[in-house]
Write a structure and sequence with these properties.
The complex is a heterodimer of chains A (345) and B (301). Chain A is of the alpha+beta class and 345 residues long. Chain A folds into 2 domains: 227 residues, 3-Layer(aba) Sandwich (Rossmann fold); 102 residues, OB fold (Dihydrolipoamide Acetyltransferase, E2P) (Beta Barrel), CATH 2.40.50.140. Chain A is 24% helix and 34% strand. By secondary structure, chain B is mainly alpha-helical. Chain B has 2 domains: 44 residues, no CATH class; 223 residues, MetI-like fold (Orthogonal Bundle), CATH 1.10.3720. In chain B, the strands form 3 sheets. Chain B has a two-stranded antiparallel ribbon. A two-stranded antiparallel ribbon of chain B has the order 3-4. In chain B, 31% of the residues are buried. Classes of the chains: A alpha+beta (345), B mainly alpha (301). At the A-B interface, strand 6 and helix 2 of A face helix 8 and helix 9 of B.
Chain lengths: 345, 301
């Protein structure tokens, strides 16, 4: 190979189960040291793709290349890639210490080295006090740390995480997400996370690939994917979105709600744009451009902010500065020209 | 004292609940007392009695029968009876071990079949139970007869002389025993294999395990409950088995089961037979105790 391509490269991966295409011609270049997320609803093929990377599943066609080495036909046992399984898959008959040491013992690494490395991992994940206990004596969050330590202690080139937080409660999950992000930054190791939780993907990732029906729909940084969703699916899957359909001519977007200036130039004559509810400005005074007069229909309290549903539309506005608005009030909305993302099929 | 309580949706007093419990327990308890505890006690008493000159029981109590079992006869000490006991233990252990060895691939094979055909395969495993044990054992006579391929192949390799059947022999005994007990291991083991959590196997693979390591850490601990049941269901009856060794082993391969049968049958020495039975029981209990100690933390059934 002539070009230097450190990291993990997937080339035209295909995998079918019977008539169902689980992974459809996926190519990805994951840089060494980045936190990469495969995001998508259940059944989109993200877990299959992860299992192909791990070597637990063989693709029908395509190549897996790790640090310029073709590992396509290497089984999981040979790959320098380790996985944190969704169920953690800890060995119930082994202590926490032995669980973490498992991969090192498989490779017949000397006891003193095993002790050193396991102790380091125990310390790093703050579970050293539990090393003599068994998995069933630990909480879900603690077991998750053990699973993480068990994979990381092998110093893999790539760490795979298969929905590792789905068994944790919401509060713990939010905390673990941040910790996971910090851990990855400190280690500088390549992490690939599979999740269906868009918040999680946005919090932890350097880059996100949004998957649907075995294909990668959009690929980019969290900001790119969230701010400029490519199509309706991405717009709705990553957070809330107001979808407005209309026609584009004379340099303006003509919709049922009015005629708007938009910064992007769509490639279509008739189509959709999306705007996030938190980007719609609400005021008593009529804005200069892209103004809509709307009536408050419903107010939903969400703790940190409010969701206000308005007519016409229905449009959703998310705001934290809540002036004394009541149902039935009339307000002015401004849909920023910059904030409206043009969607494609 | 007579507290009211809700018992699975029923309002009951504690007293009536206890009364009902006894009502349900009594038939089973009576059955066990009449057909297990009492005969057991009689066996113990008889084992200390003496054989009369016509084979009748004489109620003179002594340790004579046990001494004889340990080898102290009228002609001095011989290890014959102890050897038979030892051979029985060995046959039971080998039968159990080979049945386990054969059951693992069998169970994984069946568990890998789609659900619809899986039960067909299980039925094939169970079908031998539909035939009487003695008839099944006689069937081996036909299969191992001199004209059949197995005996011919053995003769070709000079393992037996031409024109001879493969029985009676230790080989035939093991063949019969394993075919008899394989389902007893395979069925409970299958229930464990069927529920196997394969992610543990994948985790072991992901962590660079050899096949032996995968089996020891990802498969064995998960299948231990079924395996344990299978081992006991095989080992205990295999210790006392007498039909198979009698028919397929002939006089050359006497096991403790045959010895006991002989005492109660042709020898008409019930007292000695009872003593040997006690010996067998003690040996079985001791084996199970060792097994339980070795497999600490695993529930035996």
């Amino acid at each position: 190979m002539t070009t230097e391509m450190k990291g993990l490269n997937l080339k035209e991966i295909n995998k079918s189960y019977g008539n169902v295409k689980a992974v459809d011609n996926v190519s990805l270049d994951i840089k060494s040291g980045e936190f990469f997320t495969l995001l998508g609803p259940s059944g989109c093929g993200k877990t299959t793709l992860l299992r192909i990377i791990a070597g637990l599943e063989l693709q029908d066609s395509g190549l897996v290349v790790l640090d310029d080495e073709d590992i396509t036909i290497q089984p999981a046992i040979k790959r320098q890639i380790n996985t944190v399984f969704q169920s953690y898959a800890l060995f119930p008959h082994l202590t926490i210490f032995e669980n973490i040491a498992f991969g090192l013992r498989s490779r017949k690494i000397a006891d003193s080295e095993v002790n050193k490395r396991v102790n380091k991992a125990l310390e790093m994940l703050e579970i050293d006090s539990m090393q003599k206990r068994f998995p069933h004596q630990l909480s879900g969050g603690q077991n998750q740390r053990v699973a993480l330590a068990r994979a990381l202690v092998n110093e893999p080139k790539v760490l795979l995480l298969d929905e590792p937080m789905s068994a944790l409660d919401a509060k713990l999950r939010a905390q673990v997400q941040v910790e996971l992000r910090r851990l990855q930054q400190r280690l500088g190791q390549t992490f690939i996370l599979v999740t269906h939780d868009q918040d999680e993907a946005l919090v932890v990732s350097d880059r996100i690939a949004v998957m649907k029906d075995g294909e990668i729909v959009q690929f980019g940084t969290p900001e790119q994917v969230y701010d400029y969703p490519k199509n309706k699916f991405v717009a709705e899957f990553l957070g809330a979105a107001n979808l407005i359909s209309g026609t584009y001519h004379d340099g303006r977007l003509h919709t049922d709600l009015g005629v708007f200036e938009i910064e992007d130039t769509p490639s279509w004559d008739k189509g959709d744009v999306a705007i996030r509810p938190e980007w719609i400005k609400m005021s008593d005074i009529k804005p200069e451009i892209n103004a809509i007069k709307a009536t408050v229909k419903e107010i939903i309290y969400r703790g940190t902010n409010f969701d206000i549903w308005l007519d016409p539309g229905p449009l959703r506005v998310r705001t934290s500065s809540y002036k004394k608005i009541k149902i039935g009030d009339e307000v002015w909305l401004e849909l920023g020209a910059k904030e409206m993302a043009v969607l494609h099929e | 004292m007579n507290k009211l309580m809700i018992w699975y949706g029923e309002l009951l007093s504690q007293k009536s609940l206890i009364k009902r419990g006894f009502l349900f327990l009594t038939p089973g308890m009576l059955w066990l007392i009449i057909f297990l505890v009492l005969p057991g006690l009689i066996l113990i008493v008889v084992s200390f009695a003496t054989r009369g000159s016509y084979g009748e029981l004489v109620w003179e109590f002594s340790f004579e029968n046990y001494k004889r079992l340990l080898g102290y006869g009228i002609f001095g000490w011989t290890p014959d009876y102890l050897l038979i006991l030892l051979r029985s233990v060995i046959v039971a252990i080998v039968t159990t071990a080979l049945s386990v060895l054969l059951s693992y691939p069998l169970c994984f094979f069946i568990a890998g079949k789609p659900e619809r055909t899986r039960y067909l395969w299980l039925t094939i495993v169970i079908i031998p139970f539909w035939t009487n044990m003695v008839i099944r054992t006689y069937a081996w006579f036909l299969i191992l007869a001199p004209e059949m391929p197995f005996a011919r192949i053995a003769a070709f390799f000079k393992l037996i002389s031409p024109g001879m059947p493969l029985y009676p022999s230790a080989f035939a005994v093991y063949l019969g025993m394993i075919s008899m007990f394989l389902p007893f291991v395979a069925l409970p083991l299958f229930s464990s294999v069927e529920r196997l959590d394969w992610t543990l196997v994948e985790a072991a693979q992901d962590l660079y395990s050899s096949n032996v390591r995968i089996f020891m850490h990802a498969i064995l601990p998960q299948t231990l409950p079924g395996l344990s049941v299978g081992v006991i269901l095989t080992f205990v009856p295999a210790m006392g088995m007498f039909v198979v060794p009698d028919l397929l082993g002939g006089a050359k391969y006497m096991l403790v089961g045959n010895l006991i049968q002989q005492q109660f049958g042709t020898s008409r020495d019930w007292a000695f037979g009872a003593a040997i039975s006690m010996g067998l029981m003690v040996l079985t209990m001791f084996s199970l105790y060792l097994y339980k100690r070795k497999s600490k933390g695993v529930d035996l059934i």
